[in-house]
Amino acid sequence: MSIETSETAQAPAIFDSLPYYDNDLERDPSLKERAEKLIAREVQSSTTFHPRVPPPIELFSKDPLLQAELARIEAHQPLPQLDTTRYQLPGPTSVPATQEHWQAALDNAYAQLEHQRIRHANIALMQNYGANAWRIHNYLLETTTKNLEKALEELKELTTEVNRDRKNFQTRVGNQLTTLETRWTELISSVLQIEMANIALEGEIDRLSKKEADLAAATL
User: Fold this and answer.
1) Per-domain residue ranges for the chain?
2) With contact defined as beta carbons under 8 Å apart, do 89 and 112 qualify?
3) Do residues 39 and 18 make contact, with C-beta atoms less than 8 angstroms apart?
């Protein structure tokens, strides 16, 4: 397996290998270290993902209040203290109190009374219908959970099947590559032997030619 990179390449490089067959990384630790550095650099500089990778989910995109609360939790900020002033009925603080101050205190009392009335109505509705509503909600959640678990199992089975097919294919191709590599080595060895034999023959021919020339010169 070879690793090639180009800083000036316009098209993204495609790295391919036969991980179920190649063992170059195990045989060469320096190559493995170099590959890990290239992978880390590619992950840090990559701004796009594989087309099959779903886009990141933005939670509560239509609810700014929930988004702010989620940001607070992610930042590990404490929960703001409850504002208890709205549950109080303070009277006018100025002395002597004007009619406007008494009217503001009276309006606040009316608002508190209405708030308590609404709370009482909500509690009554919750007692009558809350249990069934939660049962239905829990049933829907359980159904959704079962569907997701089933989809996850199917995806795991599909992944296992794909990996099994890849392993079988790469093992079969790897055996062919091993056979071809062995044949290539044998042919190279044969060629080298032939070249060495040719060199030896050329040397023998030169020796015989020289001997023939010496004999011809001696007979003159």
Assistant:
1) 1-46, 98-185
2) yes
3) no
